[in-house]
Amino acid sequence: MARSPIPFFDLRSQARDLKGPLTAAWERVLRNGRYVLGPEVEALEKDFSARCGVSHGVGVGSGTEALHIALAACGVGPGDEVITVSHTATATAAAIRLAGAVPVFVDVDPSTWTMDPLAAAKAVTRKTKALLPVHLYGCPADLSSLRALARRKGIALVEDAAQAHGASYKGRPIGAWGDAGCFSFYPTKNLGALGDGGMVVTSSASLAKKMRALREYGWEERYVSSAFGWNSRLDELQAAFLRVKALRLKSWVARRRALAARYRKLLSGCPGIALPADAPGHAHHLFVIRAEKRDALRKFLDRRGVQTLVHYPVPVHLQPAYARHRRAGSLAVTERLAREILSLPLYPEMPAGSLERVCREVRAFYEG
Ligand SMILES: *Cc1c(COP(=O)(O)O)cnc(C)c1O
After folding, report:
1. Which pLDDT band, with edges at 50, 70 and 90, does 46 fall under?
2. Which of 9, 65, 68, 92 maximizes ligand 1 atoms within 8 Å of its Cβ, making it the mutation to test the pocket?
3. Which atom, in ligand 1's list, is nearest to the CA of 64?
4. What is the average per-residue pLDDT within 40-69?
5. Which of 66, 212, 335, 353 is deepest in the core (most CB within 10 A)?
6. Which residues pair with 156 in a beta bridge?
7. Mean pLDDT lowest among 33-47, 270-284, 324-338
8. How far apart are the CA of 86 and the centre of ligand 1, in A?
């Protein structure tokens, strides 16, 4: 029997399902004749911030820019330190550097793989201006402890929620716990545009005002810059597409959770692997296992037509551009994870049969 390959994700099925409403959104934008920061962006900002349980949303050009702008609005600048994790997408650390500050990498908790609050507390110095935890793979970081730490030290808490649309912590949406919550709308994220985009959500009117200025040349009034700002605006077209897709976010995240639960069930007791934390509120952007002989497993799955990825193969503090911030060997959990993690295929439209086949192949590798 010919076996069709199982892709890591499939954005075309989503586009097919939504072709009608996406086309209508595109036509609406053409009719309006507004292309950057207009009524579609405003409507998306209202809708998305309300989903996060806060009153302000600021649409920007990307997730990286959401982080950069949030940090800058919180007063992070040259000479400051921002505590973050190395077990993340490079963009997290890049945003700190864009704000002119120095990333201080701390280790992650061995069960949730998100920022270890004790390690973060130890890393605070007089120069620390903000904590930047990452809800990696959609798993909420320990926001109670991190928020308490930020308050105690009088520093900002900025959440990297780029992989966590639809996640919650203690029943409250992530993004609403920090001074600012930063999202990416890169096409593969839980809520993705048909191009680049991002948003910062906040309950602070004054932070929102600063961020609106920063995304457009520092303008508070048109053509007059009251602060140094640049250009990181969100397109009307992307906002219109995102409004269509946002209506599905809840059901997509529910589907991701159901698929993750199925993975858990079918892989439980499988030798050679460890399953990810089953945190309440997890949005399962990715389903990531720890695997013995990871690279061999990956090759085996590839030969059997199962596409997998590694998020991420090299921790940020070991990448050439960031190596001066930390020694190799200094973040034990992070470095071990990088050798063992493997992301299995997961997307809302994934057929149940494909998931079952992935699990059978993983078992075949270890059980022989
Ligand atoms: C995708 C991502 C970003 C960056 O978002 P872009 O829209 O690609 O700039 C930042 N942090 C994390 C954890 C991400 O996954």
Report:
1. very high
2. 92
3. 9
4. 98
5. 66
6. 130
7. 324-338
8. 14
